[in-house]
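Deliverable D4.2, example record:
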Amino acid sequence: MLFFFACVALLIAGYFVYGKFVDRIFAPDESLTTPAYALQDGIDYMPLPKWKLIFIQVLDIAGVGPIFGPILGALYGPVALLWVVIGCIFAGAVHDYFSGMLSLRNKGASVPEVVGEYLGMSARQVMRVFSFVLLMLVGVVFVLSPAKLLNGLTGIETGWLVAAIFAYYFLATILPIDKVIGRIYPLLGALLLCMTVALVVALFAGGYEILPNLDVMTNVHPADKPIWPLLFVTLSCGALSGFHSTQSPLMARCVKNEREGRSVFYGAMIIEGIIGLIWCTIGLSFYNSPEALSAVISAGTPAAVVAEVSHTLLGSVGGALAIIAVIVLPITSGDTAFRSTRLIVAETFKVEQASTVKRLMIAVPLFVLGYVISTQNFSTIWRYFGFANQSLAALVLWTSAVYLAQRAKLHWIATIPATFMTAVCVAFICNAKIGLNMDYSMSVIVGIICAVIAFAIFLIKFGTGRKSGTKASA
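Output generated by the structure prediction step:
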């Protein structure tokens, strides 16, 4: 139990100590007019209170990741808790902070435009396609997964639930951000946090042995899957997730003052880390062994673990509320995934979005495409999501490092996690059956070599803090 509270304390301390350090390096300027005022359109750009921004950002970035990922990560043992803490403080929160703050400094631009600003036009074009595909997959999956959970809870036919969720997504995509998202997210966020805390309190009070195994050096995965690199791809949202960079610009368009950035972007990731820490602890403590946890996952999905844990610890009513709180996560990420896609398309083709007709011109085809995708068996494509997600995280971290190096600031806060994740992603795709299916040892070596090469290229091109044709100002 003390180990759990120590981990929570470290995450909170990370916000106040390392988060403040990162913020000081970026040097937010409260005298600058933010996009919320400079480009205010009453639709996507408008000032919102900081407390609302934090709640919205937490739900935007979460999805089912900080629950399902830590449950799957728990199969590797308590080392997953360390990755949540270390990854969240030094990688995930840094990634989220810079994806939000760089958007702020670039008129609320979406991630493809931000990456392109610092890595060039080729990177911008690749990111436009990459982000569009990633967000469409996320949006569709976050229709199907909550529909199935609601079907198990209510008995309503899944098809009707899918239609209802699609209808909500459509409204949330085209209406002003303060009309739906700004009004209901704070309530849903409060429900999520209350039920998550209720679960961990019930676990502690229920006579369960909390974290019975604290041997972080031993891999206990029932299928003997290697910790490196799989843990760092499997457990993403609770520690580091590239998907977050597609969502941060939504709030960058609503921030009143750059000084709010640490709370909204770095702080929201710390909150998600605590949620991930709780669910990882539940996975390690509720079940007698990794094999028992794996059996429940294999018989269903991590959703089966959520249902069993919620009903056992909180009873029928409390369990239902806890499951609803979990259902909130994919729904509140799915709607903003479609909204982000609309904005990326609008930026790509230079279509202003103050007009309802022009928003519909983009949104209607998007949802038609989303419906078509939802009827297909795209499980093979989705298997690449983990790799694509963490590759995006690495790319955004490299972008952040370039931004800092060009201004002769301490780029190491982004360079180190970027190099680490480059090694993870390359090793994963080299070894995975969906990738190159190389020998494990060789995959690890190739991953390390590629990371070293990427690091060396960065130092050669940007390590001096100079790059021709690039301004070194804010």
